[in-house]
Design a protein that fits this description.
The structure is a single chain. Helices cover 23% and strands 39% of the residues. The protein has three helices and eight strands, in the order E-H-E-E-E-H-E-H-E-E-E. A hairpin with a 4-residue loop joins strand 2 and strand 3. The structure holds ligand LP2KCY5N and cobalt (II) ion (CO). Keywords: Isomerase, Metal-binding. InterPro entries: Glyas_Bleomycin-R_OHBP_Dase, MeMalonyl-CoA_epimerase, MMCE/EMCE_epimerase, VOC_core. GO terms for molecular function: methylmalonyl-CoA epimerase activity.
């Protein structure tokens, strides 16, 4: 089952410029920045009530965020839903005909395991599933 919206991902050209703007907008400090090398992105996180805003800056000129900005400009890039069991949700959604962009959960930011669904099957919206990484046994 999909729980709450965990975060909304926003593609930006420059975190240096966008962080102070979102701090002012949300009236709360950025609580974390993190490079997610596997995704080629620099991220910055803000709390917004029960949800989060994730700013995404490309870490290289050919990354997915750079490509997105080149095509569509800065703006909302994806919506991430929290799930309790990412493997079960991936299985359910694949069986329902959605296109999973990764076959197994992969490392996300903020200690999460994530999976993306192709926007072609979701009315043009890139969807991310994310689950808190279980503590190492
Ligand atoms: C920081 C980690 C993690 C977290 O923990 O939260 C993140 O959020 S990482 C975020 C960045 N990573 C990803 O987005 C990974 C998943 N995305 C992809 O695999 C690709 O971006 C994609 C969705 C498969 C698109 O890649 P590609 O096919 O190479 O790009 P194109 O430019 O050719 O696009 C094809 C088609 O799809 C449209 N598109 C692309 N991105 C989006 C988007 N974010 N939302 C909606 N639509 C999107 C693009 O416009 C093209 O459409 P057409 O032009 O109509 O063909
Ligand atoms: Co995200």
């Amino acid at each position: 089952m999909m729980d709450k919206i965990e975060h909304i991902g926003i593609a930006v050209k420059s975190l240096e410029a966008a962080i102070p703007l979102y701090e002012q907008l949300l009236n709360t400090p950025c609580y974390k920045t993190e490079l997610v090398a596997a995704e080629n992105v620099n991220t910055a996180f803000f709390n917004a009530g029960p949800n989060k805003i994730e700013l995404l800056e490309s870490a290289s000129p050919d990354g997915v965020i750079a490509k997105f900005i080149e095509k569509k400009g800065e703006g909302i890039h994806h919506i991430a839903f929290a799930v309790a069991d990412i493997d079960a949700e991936m299985k359910r959604l694949a069986a329902a005909g959605f296109t999973l962009l990764n076959e197994t959960p992969k490392q996300g930011a903020d200690n999460k395991l994530v999976c993306f669904l192709h926007p072609k099957n979701t009315n043009g919206v890139l969807i991310e599933l994310c689950m808190e990484k279980p503590a190492a046994q």
